[in-house]
Amino acid sequence: MHLEYTPEQQAFRAEVRAWMEAHVPKEPLVTLECREGYDQHVEWERTLASGNWGMVTWPEAYGGRGLDLIQWLIFEEEYFRAGGPNRANQNGIFLLGPTIMEFGTEEQKARFLPPMARGEVIWAQAWSEPGAGSDMAAIQSKAVRDGDHYVITGQKTWSSRAAFADWGFGIFRTDPDSKRHKGLTFILFDLNSPGITRRPIRQLHGDTGFAELFFDEVRVPVENCLAGEGEGWNVAMATAGFERGLMLRSPGRFQATAKRLVELYRAHEAEASPAAREAVVQAWMQAQAYAWNTYAVAAKIMAGGKIGAEASLNKIFWSELDRAMHRTAMQILGAHAELKRFGNGQINQWLEGYIFSLSGPIYAGSNEVQRNIIAERLLGLPRAGAG
Amino acid sequence: MDFRFTDDQLTLAESVRDYLAGTHGPEVLRRLDSEGNRDPAIWQGLVDMGLTGLLVPEEHSGLGLGLVEAALIATECGRACLAEPLVDTAFVAVPWLVRRGEVAELGAIAAGTRKVALPHVLNPWVADGADEFPGQPLQSVDPLRNLVMFPASGSADPHLLDLGALMSAAQLVGLAEAMLHQATEYAKVRTQFGQPVGAFQGLKHQLASCAVAVEFAKPALWYAAGTLECMSSNTSVHVSHAKVMATDAAIQTAETAIQVHGAMGYTYEVDLHFWMKRAWALAGSWGDRACHLKRIDQAVIGGTLPIGPEHTFA
User: Fold this and answer.
1) I need a labelling partner for A117 at 20 to 30 A (CA). Which of A88, A194, A341, B281 fits?
2) Catalytic residue among A77, A212, A243, A310
3) What is the rounded CA–CA span in Å between residue B26 and residue B47?
4) Which of A296, A371, A378 sits opposite B205 (nearest CB)?
5) What range does the domain containing A357 cover?
6) Confidence class of residue A387 from pLDDT cuts 50, 70 and 90?
7) How far is the C-alpha of B263 from the C-alpha of B266, rounded, in Å?
8) How many structural domains comprise chain A?
9) Assembly ipTM
10) Which of A77, A368, A382 sits opposite B309 (nearest CB)?
């Protein structure tokens, strides 16, 4: 156990801090879930890319910096310290990028990764269908081989970023006679292809970040298939692992929220309840515990270890922490909690954050599914119906 | 920056775990409960492993190891529900005496011939302190805890409190892991409605929640051990942090484990109660939840501790 940063790590922190302080927008951006906010966030992706800060853990060959996980944690800490905006290209950075690196051909890596790193192409995910949410193996959307193309017909829903993004990725049934996990293929597609209709879905807050996608005989070249026909389930499971794993929600985000919550409490100390005070202390404790846990897991991975079903512990912890922190803020704000903008015109970020936090226990595999995974794969309890 | 244990540390903890698993099973707890709480042979086994001298400097015939190793082993003591006063003597009293330069008894402690129980003002009694404080014995809900009132006031030294709280937190983590294991194993074999009760989500999700609580109490414990070892400036906050999270994880797991065992869980027949009662006892020892929350509160809300993403290791 060595609890000091090296001089190189300290210098790296100083470098990130200086760049972030010079470049992070002074005013919070408009929410990513509307056209104006989306454009602002894409602009921010390009600013990040101009400093080569877009994909810091990616290899240099694909537009990254080739940083290790400790450097990544330092980067994230400084990113959230500076109040860096949400990442419009999160689906690309954390989900598709690592998936292409693991399963893609050299041609696919060269074609898709650098534009992703430069913020030129923003990606949407397309997993769920109306009948396939937590039960993703129930997917029905079809991709039928026709020469050197697949012809896609069907419907995807809850597609994050799909209202405005450029490209999408998802799994489709390429073998019409297949059942469940078999016969699925992972396909990348241009969201502006003929035959795709996007219907933005109005979310809880009234804005439209995700969308339904309707595919009506959409022709996609076979070279857009990742890892071979019929391999879709394995690829998707790896992608889902990235989503739940170490990188989707770095600790800096929650430590920054906990700090803002402490500041909010201090400003309302006179009228806040003792229960809110304890909840604020708990928020700090849990955000710190999450950070230390992430450092421990990062050190383990750097030493050649792997993160498996343990990722489900993380996903439950951060998503329920985020919801609790924002709920506490809403309680502290009292009557002001309902205001979209405060009297001084400032956006009520706690309200926006609270609404967003309610999605955390649902997306990236609902927390009920995560608890099943923990119970069955970590604790070894039998599956339902096992006699 | 490398927030990991060394292979040597992990090997040491594993050897203690294996030793206790092999020699100190539930049947030993039941025997102690019916025959008088302490067994010199168990103590001698711990002495023979060198554990009483773990933190005693080498020039006083000890192993000269540190609090991180001690915390790992205290976790194993919790896992085995060890009743012998190893943790209080070897992992609380020894480092306190060493730091104060009181070395006279260290050799005897390492050799296992001297047990030391230190009173602190926050603890109204002492466990296994009858030799030093011949006072009124008290009966704990934990049948294997030998409590005695101590006559004079104890120390108010915060370093002693930190050591006691850290080692209680470590034991609570071990207790929680053991109770989670016992409940899980029971849920695999108890069948109702034609299947193991552990196949039902109602149980699965409760046990999974305990696994989450324990998982995130551990890094708080490890960090507290690391900072107390090097006496960094904010170590008391980190110790309190570890104690609160370990206590909450242990109490949640104890209640869940009882529930998972159903009516059996409410009996003296099931071994679980030894672990649960130790958790209750340690939850209030060396500073209860309120005491430790207050120390964290003063640092975090009071502003004496730097907070935010760039202060992960403040």
Assistant:
1) A194
2) A243
3) 21
4) A371
5) 245-378
6) very low
7) 5
8) 3
9) 0.96
10) A77
